[in-house]
Pyridoxal 5'-phosphate synthase
Amino acid sequence: MGTDLHDLLRSLRVWDIDLPSFDPAATPADPLALFTTWFAEAVAAGQVEPHTMSLATADAEGLPDVRTVMLHGADTSGWSFATHAGSTKGRQLTARPYAALGFYWPAQGRQVRLRGPVTTAPSTDSQADLHARSTGALAAALTGRQSEVLGSLEELARESQAAWERAQREPDAPVPSWTLYRLRPEEVEFFQGDAARRHVRLLYRRTEMGWTKELRWP
């Protein structure tokens, strides 16, 4: 007998754990400081892969797209991630250099959402970012051809093996298409879940005078 998706969905429970409290009045003036604190707390809480995030872009026609990528850093210049410039998301960011990011840390019932313009980092920064990562990350970048049609899994295995061997032999091998992107948020929202559904949402909005903060209904 097949799985009944409806019954399975109804059987699931959300946040059947003790959730942390969140006092918006005690938050810092800059969202980066609060993000750093929440990220560290997610790590301490045992959240699996807290550095993964959803990246939403739009194509040239304005149709949305989303995927999960890895956060490479966050500072005053923005939240950074990387990909090949010729990948689907790379082409979309060229056509429409604006995106949204979403973090979800269920271990604490927290979400962080950001959106804003995206710029590319200098090539030297992009290559430094790549070579600071693992051998596997370099091998994947060297394999290249991201988002292109794949003829067979055998072809993937063959190209991947060659890339691994090169990455081990040349740890500083350049990958010209590898691009570091930075999203400079115009808005950052912090969401703290509540078992009684009295979720707390705090929105930071960038202005010419700095950041403003406001609460939102859940």
